[in-house]
Write a structure and sequence with these properties.
single chain; 414 residues; mainly alpha; Growth Hormone, Chain: A; 18 helices; 0% strand
């Protein structure tokens, strides 16, 4: 690897890409469009439809990511795939502008949301695989933490702009009509444009190493990825544990805004305020734990974060009122950033250079293979008990099982 790839510009571009991409899932999948869909487009059965759509998206990601990751390794074209997924995510999200607040737009909204979620999640297979080309192995924790933090702060900045420009003003700009929720709908093309502008430097400033393994078919490449994972002690166990605690985070992200709205009667303005606050604590967590990771190690950071998340998520679940919910949810946010950043670091440090994208393809499976289960169980428990608290209990259970499976042994030859 030549030294010029370890200069400052690629690191900035890497962090900027996280800053660029995070407003789309934050505004679309969690806090603005998801709440708009459940409250205005399909108020009767929206929660269940959103859960089913999330389940299907997660299943699709689990199927395509390892195949695409293997193809990217085989042809050395991670940036090409990254560009394709980025373009798809931008177009699908921007087109949600036309979703009006009535049930006739249900299918249009669900199909485009599905495409957006699949594209925005899949691109992380290629983005994660670029991390070791940006920074030397001993500094991966810092850059990983910095980019996660940049993502959270990008989401906060974008949420704050959206709130001040579109949601709060009595008379929104550009002649937006509040009667048909245009001040909410405009957030989708806004987030898409944001991604386009800030995401582009990555393609100019990060040089992809030319490692190709043309000799193998894509299926053989996936098999080789699985074999490689099996040769690294403890990696498979780690990926299975991560699968479960990632499922818990999927539930928290997919239903956080909906939970606040349905259980504590949050308004759209309050949900965005809550979103800004929780992204702030998650960003602070990711930023402050980056340096801790480089000292403590990624694995210990994961274990510590998991213990804290289990305790705090349980407190969120039994919160008696809005103030209690605010305090416990914001503290929970602090440990969401570290667990995501540190999990990526643990894997990035121990995989062979020529198998990065395919192992990160498996890593995406471990984040997605069963993640349809969370929304599915949420929907079932919500239907059985008629409360979002029952649905959110799924997250606590998944966190506990993930921690038990993780064990004490760090993966890799250490």
């Amino acid at each position: 690897m030549d030294n010029q790839t370890y200069t400052l510009k690629p690191k900035i571009a890497y962090g900027l890409f996280d800053w660029a991409s995070s407003p789309i899932p934050t505004l679309h999948a969690t806090f603005v469009f998801a709440v708009y869909y459940v409250s205005s487009v399909s108020p009767e059965t929206g929660s269940a439809e959103w859960a089913w759509m999330n389940s299907l998206a997660a299943l699709t990601i689990a199927i395509i990511c390892p195949i695409l990751g293997a193809s990217a390794d085989r042809n050395g074209n991670r940036k090409t795939w990254l560009a394709i997924m980025m373009g798809t995510g931008i177009v699908a999200t921007g087109m949600l502008w036309w979703v009006e607040p009535n049930a006739s737009w249900m299918w249009y909204a669900l199909i485009l949301s599905f495409i957006s979620i699949v594209a925005m999640e899949s691109l992380f297979t290629f983005y994660n695989a670029l991390l070791p080309s940006v920074v030397s192995n001993d500094k991966i924790g810092s850059v990983s933490g910095f980019s996660w933090a940049a993502g959270y702060f990008g989401a906060i900045f974008c949420l704050a702009l959206v709130l001040m420009l579109f949601i709060l003003p009595e008379q929104p700009p550009f002649g937006l009509d509040k009667a048909i929720a245009e001040q909410v709908r405009v957030t989708m093309p806004f987030a898409a444009l944001w991604f386009l502008v800030f995401g582009l430097p990555l393609f100019f400033w990060i040089k992809e190493p030319k490692i190709k393994t043309h000799s193998l078919s894509i299926l053989a490449t996936i098999k080789q990825g699985v074999k490689t994972a099996q040769t690294i002690p403890g990696l498979v166990r780690f990926l299975v544990a991560r699968m479960l605690y990632a499922d818990a985070l999927v539930v928290i992200f997919a239903f956080g805004g909906i939970y606040a709205t349905n259980v504590f009667g949050f308004t759209q303005d309050e949900v965005i305020g809550f979103a800004i606050a929780i992204n702030l604590t998650a960003g602070l967590g990711a930023a402050s734990v980056g340096w801790l990771e480089d000292r403590l190690g990624g694995f210990r950071t994961v274990r510590l974060s998991l213990i804290c998340l289990i305790v705090l998520a349980f407190v969120v679940l039994i919160s008696p009122n809005k103030a209690f919910f605010w305090a416990s949810a914001l503290t929970t946010g602090f440990f969401i950033g570290p667990i995501q950043s540190a999990s990526r670091t643990v894997v990035a440090r121990i995989i062979p250079a020529d198998q990065r994208a395919r192992i990160f393809g498996l890593y995406m499976i471990s984040g997605k293979a069963t993640s349809f289960l969370g929304p599915l169980l949420y929907g079932i428990l919500f239907t059985l008990f008629g409360t979002d608290r029952a649905g959110m209990a799924v997250a606590v259970v998944f966190l506990i099982i993930g921690y038990l499976l993780l064990g004490r042994q760090q993966p890799g030859h250490h």
